[in-house]
Amino acid sequence: MAVVLDMVNFGRGTTKLPHSVLLEMQKELLDHKGIGTSVPEMSYRSSDFAKIINNAETLVWELLAVRDNYEVIFVQGGGSSQFCAVPLKLIGLKVAECGAWSAKAAEAAKKFGTINIVHSKFGNYTKIPDPSTWNLNSDASSVYYCTNEMVHDVEFDFTPDVKGAVLVCDMPSHFLSKPVDVSKFGVIFAGAQKNVGSAGVTVVIVSDDQLGFALRECPSVLEYKVQAGNSSLYNTPPCFSIYIWGAVAMEKLSSIKSKMIYEIIDNSQGFYACPVEPQNRSKMNIPFCIGNVKGDDALEKRFLDKALELSMWSMKGHRSVGGIQASLYNAVKIEHVWQLATFMKNFWRLL
Ligand SMILES: Cc1ncc(COP(=O)(O)O)c(C=O)c1O
User: Which residue numbers delimit the Aminotransferase class V domain (predicted)?
Assistant: First the structure.
């Protein structure tokens, strides 16, 4: 019997998009949320597009726990334009050249100021030179590196200590795939097409400290202060790419949130039990019983009472199935899920 498999895109250039996102795009293509027009036709100054871009931005803030002293902007021009935006902003750049992309960034930056390479080329880019051998100790204002060199496939598993210089990071293939301590960086940029959407939009996270200065030659479209000051609407933004970006990030967010709770259930040695098979579990509504697979009424009541004391409510399962049900809809933030996860762990361990 012939087995037909779905085509899976393992390409390095552009990411596979989640099937659910493609279906949503298809459903909404002609008429976005019943407003009578499609996203590519929408005015980028309209309140409808404002909702789309605000949602995309909020998701970056949530997923990466970005603090108030940072700006999140969406720009055109890809990672390559940031190779120019960064040196136009931060003169005296140093580059950790560990692969083709950081080599390109260094080449682009040379046009605008003094560039030092922190280490001479290391073999055929098969390894990251030991940071203790990097030439960091002069007066460079900033250090640029790429977390994952997509051509040579060298990945940083640490954040370099750059001795007080501003750290700039090109992060496309990592972006939103793992937690990042944003506070260590002056600038992070990532083209969406690698991990979180389709080509056309680049997300830049820039600390407020880095907004001020830019070289006189810096075109306004590349100036972070201008883009941040205009909420990414200084020039026409890539509306459809931002819309896709938001949908993919939302999908990621719900996977992360539901995983936090399912992991506790599955690691609780039967204390919490989810009746649904792992491959069919909802990311939005998580049902579970407490005490055993059928649920212990007294324990479940205690769980709900304790949860209420901690301001977590409405988790009683539907009357037809009983047990507990936690719904993780979009407005339920990661920190709320974290609060529930911590409570579940404590309830189980301290019983
Ligand atoms: C690490 C890295 N930086 C920058 C770029 C350039 O991105 P763009 O083609 O969007 O300018 C790429 C593209 O693959 C990349 O992998």
Answer: 9-339
Please, what are the averages of pLDDT over each run of 10 residues along the chain (351 residues)? 61 83 94 95 96 95 91 96 86 75 88 83 79 79 87 86 90 84 95 90 94 82 94 96 94 91 96 92 92 94 96 90 89 90 95 80
Inter-residue contact 145 to 95 (CB < 8 Å): yes
Q: Considering only CA atoms, which residue is closest to atom 12 of ligand 1?
A: 79
Instruction: With residue 189 as reference, give the H or E element that holds it.
Output: strand 187-191
**70-75 and 202-207 beta bridge pairing:** antiparallel
Tell me whether residue 296 is exposed, middle or buried, using C-beta atoms within 10 angstroms of its C-beta: 0 to 12, 13 to 18, 19 or more.
middle
Instruction: Please name each of the domains of the chain with its CATH number.
Output: 24-246 (3.40.640.10), 252-350 (3.90.1150.10)
Tell me, using a 6 A CB cutoff, whether residue 172 lines ligand 1. Answer: yes
Q: Is the CB of 80 within 6 Å of ligand 1?
A: yes
Could you tell me if the CB of 238 is within 6 A of ligand 1? no
Structure token digits, residue 286 = 């998580």
Global pTM value: 0.84
DSSP-assigned beta bridge partners for residue 146: 170
Q: Tell me if residue 31 is catalytic.
A: no
